[in-house]
Design goal:
There is one protein chain. It is built from four helices and no strands. The chain has one domain. α1 packs antiparallel against α2, α1 packs across α3 and α3 packs across α4. It is flat, with a radius of gyration of 16 Å. With 91 residues, the chain is mainly alpha-helical.
């Protein structure tokens, strides 16, 4: 744990991160690089965030795995509808 005022050095993003993430997804990238999920999340945001996620979805659709894209989209849509109806439950 860093002491107050100390700088924390983060693990740098691997050069082939984008290719690995697009092919394997977030869990595959975590396993491939043996990285913590926070590091992988930070790398995704450094590479463009939503645009990189769109590349991943396009890859899944192009390779016949669109069903998983639809499941994720549907789950996010349901969460949004639930939050609109009942309010955000995360406090």
């Amino acid at each position: 744990m860093p002491k107050p005022g100390e700088r924390v050095s983060y693990r740098p993003m691997p050069k082939d991160f984008v290719d690995v993430y697009v092919r394997l997804g977030i869990n595959g990238a975590k396993a491939h690089f043996r990285a913590h999920f926070r590091s992988v999340d930070r790398w995704i945001e450094q590479c463009g965030g939503d645009e990189l996620r769109r590349q991943r979805c396009a890859y899944l659709v192009a390779n016949g795995r669109a069903k998983s894209v639809i499941k994720v989209w549907h789950r996010k849509r349901l969460a949004k509808v639930h939050a609109e109806r009942y309010g955000d439950l995360r406090d």
